[in-house]
Specification:
This protein is 63% helix and 0% strand. It is built from eleven helices and no strands.
């Protein structure tokens, strides 16, 4: 059976929103809840000056703001930042925080590609297509893409095509499925490509 957790403390006048997210957070408890539920989509870059400034604007969180600012400046680990935030309120029990730390340790062992796939799949499962699109563009069109193999790059293109079925057009998705298949040679990608050609009535290409 689940438990009901009451948020206490003053609600902020202005919401905080993590990079790549559209979820507005008004209390430190909401921020902690978001972290615990989206930790597999997060990294150190998600904790930046905007979070520090939000914390400073909350009188009861000024000490936490100083700690987080110092951790960011010193380039401390994601685990250090997360634990400091979770200890700033009584939202989670000590055992739950330890479980989260173990999850972070597991994530740190994953390759860059595995983290990308997990983060993208999390967005897709929750129908957050715009967030998935922004994330994939960040990966595919920056220096980070050099860390990927040709097959891995193709798999992420496949995911981008899935996103564009929902946010763009079948024609655009078809081209991306084709580009993806040229790299990953996955049967599933080929099937999706042919299906989208039919949906977009590109019969000549389909034949």
């Amino acid at each position: 059976m689940g438990s009901l957790i009451l948020c206490v403390g003053k609600k902020a006048n202005k919401a905080f929103v993590f990079p790549g997210s559209s979820i507005e957070l008004y209390t430190i408890q909401e921020i902690c809840y978001y972290i615990c539920n989206y930790i597999d989509t997060m990294n150190e870059r998600d904790f930046d000056e905007s979070l520090v400034q939000w914390l400073y604007r909350q009188p009861e969180l000024e000490k936490t703001a100083v700690k987080i600012e110092r951790l960011i400046e010193n380039q401390n680990s994601l685990k250090d930042i997360v634990v400091t935030l979770l200890c700033a309120c009584d939202y989670y029990k000590e055992t739950e925080i330890r479980d989260l730390v173990r999850r972070i340790d597991q994530l740190e062992k994953m390759s860059f590609y595995e983290k990308c796939r997990q983060k993208c799949n999390r967005f897709l499962r929750n129908a957050k297509y715009r967030e998935a699109e922004r994330f994939l563009y960040d990966v595919l069109k920056t220096e980070l893409a050099k860390k990927l193999t040709v097959e891995e790059y193709g798999n992420l293109l496949h995911n981008l095509a899935v996103v564009h079925i929902h946010t763009a057009s079948y024609s655009e998705a078809a081209q991306e499925f084709r580009d993806a298949y040229e790299r990953n040679r996955r049967e599933e990608t080929l099937k999706q490509y042919l299906l989208v050609l039919q949906l977009s009535e590109q019969n000549t290409l389909y034949e």
